[in-house]
Amino acid sequence: MAEERETHDHDHDHDHDHDLTFQPNIEDSEAGRYELMTYAIRELLMEKGHLAPDELRAAQEKVESLQHSDGAKVIAKAWTDADFKNRLLEDGNAALAEVGVDAGAAKMTVVENTDDVQNVVVCTLCSCYPRAVLGMPPDWYRSKSYRSRVVIEPRQVLAEFGTDVPDDMTVRVHDSLADLRYLVIPRRPAGTDGWTEEQLAAIVTRDTMVGVANPTAS
Amino acid sequence: MSGNFAPGDTVQVISTHPPGHRRTPYYIRGKVGEIERVCGDFRNPEELAYGFDGLPKKTLYRVRFKQTDVWADYAGPESDTVDVDIYEHWLLPA
User: Fold this and answer.
1) Does A81 lie in the same domain as A47?
2) What is the dihedral of CA A139, A134, B61, B8, to 10 degrees?
3) ipTM of the complex
4) Could you tell me the CATH number of the domain that includes residue B26?
5) How confident is the model at residue A22 (pLDDT cuts 50, 70, 90)?
6) Any chain A CB within 8 A of the CB of B20?
7) Tens of pLDDT, residues A161-198
8) Nearest residue in B to A117, CA atom
9) Residue A110 burial by CB count (10 A; 0-12/13-18/19+): exposed, middle or buried?
10) CB A179 to CB B25 under 8 A?
11) Chain B residue numbers touching A177 (CB-CB < 8 A)
């Protein structure tokens, strides 16, 4: 700090910490091996004419436009249409296609929270996530801490999310590792009788579809 | 490939540690569980990772393990489970 202050050519008595006032530049951290490989492959693909900048941008924008609100609409429909819910549990990809969601090559596996079971999803190897219905995964989902702890001590991790699961309920952890992607149908909360699908979708948050939280009517 | 296991079958995950890109996590190797469902046949991701075609396809299962069988000091009821996607070539009848 002393050095920093010496660079000032004016007097002042504020005590803000200059070392902490800057947002680090993303270029300041050294690119890792895989980051460099990604850049190299991207440049090669463009140089050889296999990929145009606009195509890359369109693909990125498509991925980043996916929102968990799509998943919430699916859940609201499942809550109000038992046949649809059964089709969703039976064949996730086909049921999602009915409502215009293309889940891609991954096999969408839909699991339902009941009065006896709380499901929670993780990918312990990397960060497999149902992006088609939930968009990009949150940072905590990709963190080593979540990925390692939720399989070993799921109840403690759920409690940290504010979700206490009583001992007479089963906690089912789903480790999504390769070709399956999971979507949790949360329990429909009490006090939502007669609600429209739009009202219901509004209380279905991202975390409730990963299984670390449960929706409430308020 | 139609798969050699059916829902309800007891299976053991092979306890081996080959190098390379493997989709079966360490913590579940050697553990005994039950086939929960047959998920279908997929190109083998452990081959696809290296630019091969992943053929022949491998049958993928969801295998359900009791948490108390997986972790010696698991702090939770007996009924808690971890369901893991595992390819046929990692499973043995048990």
Assistant:
1) no
2) 110
3) 0.95
4) 2.30.30.50
5) confident
6) no
7) 999 999 999 999 999 987 899 999 999 999 999 999 99
8) B80
9) buried
10) no
11) 23-25, 84-86
